[in-house]
Specification:
Blueprint (H helix, E strand, L loop, with lengths): L1 E5 L6 H12 L2 E4 H11 L2 H11 L6 H14 L5 E4 L5 H13 L6 E6 L2 H9 L1 E4 L5 E3 L14 E2 L6 H15 L1 H8 L3 E5 L4 H18 L1
Parallel strand pairs: 1-3, 1-4, 2-3, 4-8
Antiparallel strand pairs: 5-6, 5-7
Helix pairs in contact: 1-9, 2-3, 6-7
Length: about 210
């Protein structure tokens, strides 16, 4: 199974990817996680990406493409879930050609739909452990009491003003990717409101229907 999760920042792609890893045996490819690890490592790629991410802008495609290509290759071109990639038509074109050239096209692109107002509330309550990189949420997954509170920070791109800017970028540059995959009969739209388990059940039902139709 080869799928991509699509949706606005904070739609729940990472959480659903983790459930797909657990319940469908897929490998999770998150360009966001890879980039943030590069930033923590202080690598050249990380330094280049940090400026764009702090401004709520998209990291240049050439940087993300190299990371995505290596990650897909490391998975043997199969049994993966892409989280947060592709984000532009250019990236979608490249990914389609790259996978088709290797005889491994995507099965589906699952779009998780969540209203902007819910997105802003969700993301602005996210926190991260600056030492370990572990993510938390003030409502759904608060930091454990034994974790040093001075290590729990809010990333610059999770502040409300940055979230609104990220959403504008998403609607202007990334939302057209939905039409790209819709025209190719690959887009599966799923309601992203509800518990993680509820949304996951909708995704799994959709994927089972697709597999049975092949």
């Amino acid at each position: 199974m080869r799928i991509a999760l699509f949706g606005a920042p904070g739609a729940g792609k990472g959480s659903q990817a983790a459930l797909l890893v657990k319940n469908a045996g897929l490998k999770h490819i998150s360009t966001g996680i890879i980039l943030r690890q590069a930033i923590r490592d202080g690598s050249e790629v990380g330094e280049r990406a940090q400026h764009y991410m702090e401004q709520g802008a998209l990291v240049p495609g050439s940087v993300v493409r190299a990371l995505a290509e290596q990650a897909v290759k490391d998975c043997g071109f199969d049994q993966f879930v892409l989280d947060g990639y592709p984000r532009t038509i250019e990236q979608a074109d490249w990914l389609s050609k790259y996978l088709e050239d290797n005889g491994t096209p995507l099965l589906a692109v699952v779009s998780i739909g969540v209203p902007d107002s819910v997105i802003v509330n969700r993301i602005s309550k996210r926190r991260v452990n600056s030492k370990t990189g572990e993510n938390y949420h003030l409502d759904f997954k608060p930091p454990p009491p034994d974790v040093d509170s001075s290590l729990i920070i809010q990333r610059a791109d999770d502040r409300p003003e940055s979230v609104l800017k990220r959403l504008r970028v998403y609607h202007d540059q990334t939302r057209p990717v939905e039409d790209y995959y819709r025209r190719r009969d690959l887009l599966v739209e799923v309601d992203g409101i509800g518990s993680f388990d509820d949304v996951h059940a909708r995704i799994m039902d959709s994927l089972r229907e697709l597999q049975s139709a092949i």
